């Protein structure tokens, strides 16, 4: 199988965290000083209990709660406006990711939840890191040479056992072009599918035929 990079490989492991009893003033100061959009709230055992975002702080300062439904209910929304500590200000339960998720899986979750980052937790709910949109984007920014080597060595060589030099691989800005011969036509969609599963690949253009056809 091809190696698909995971959240655990791209996430930030050193994470600024808050405690439930962290004061509102300290929360605001920490987010501002570290120039971050949100921070996980963990208990004494390191278990994730919620997330405080910069928008939570702004709503508190302006006295305007989130639209109905965004924070669960009106009581919770107005509670955030009056919050004095992180546990009253935070969103809970928090949307999370797992270290073994693939990059596309995490990207879909970010999009689905309309958030910019996700705390990463283990099976016990303990915080192990945080993954952001920029972390995921960086995973897809790979050089054409890296992609070409993975197609040649992993897809064509290791997985399919196609002789070196039988298929020429050209990669330009993530677009893969394949030219050459394959033993059986049925291998063409297999090769295309495997190439499309490589991180950083945009399109695959196969020009593959049987020998002497």
TrEMBL record:
User: Which InterPro entries does this UniProt record tie to the protein?
Assistant: BON_dom, CBS_dom, CBS_dom_sf, Diverse_CBS-Domain, UCP036990_CBS_BON
- SUPFAM superfamilies attached to this UniProt entry: CBS-domain pair
Question: BON domain location, by residue?
Answer: 144-212
Do you know which PROSITE patterns this protein is assigned to? BON (PS50914), CBS (PS51371)
Domain (CBS): residue spans on this chain: 11-68, 90-146
Q: Name one Pfam family in it.
A: BON
Protein's name in the database: CBS domain-containing protein
């Amino acid at each position: 199988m091809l190696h698909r990079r995971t959240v655990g490989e791209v996430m930030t492991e050193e994470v600024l965290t808050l405690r439930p009893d962290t004061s509102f003033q300290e929360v605001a100061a920490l987010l501002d000083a570290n120039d971050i959009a949100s921070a996980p709230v963990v208990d004494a055992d390191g278990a994730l209990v919620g997330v405080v975002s910069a928008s939570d702080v702004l709503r508190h300062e302006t006295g305007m709660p989130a639209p109905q439904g965004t924070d669960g209910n009106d009581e919770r929304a107005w509670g955030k406006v009056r919050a004095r500590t992180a546990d009253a200000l935070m969103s809970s339960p928090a949307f999370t990711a797992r270290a073994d998720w693939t990059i596309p899986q995490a990207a879909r979750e970010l999009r689905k939840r309309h958030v910019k980052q996700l705390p990463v937790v283990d099976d016990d709910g303990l915080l192990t890191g945080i993954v952001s949109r920029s972390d995921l984007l960086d995973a897809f920014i790979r050089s054409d040479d890296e992609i070409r080597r993975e197609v040649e060595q992993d897809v064509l060589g290791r997985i399919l056992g196609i002789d070196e030099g039988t298929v020429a691989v050209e990669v330009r800005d993530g677009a893969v072009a394949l030219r050459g011969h394959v033993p059986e036509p049925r291998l063409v969609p297999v090769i295309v599918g495997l190439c499309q599963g490589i991180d950083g690949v945009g399109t695959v253009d196969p020009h593959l035929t049987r020998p002497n056809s």
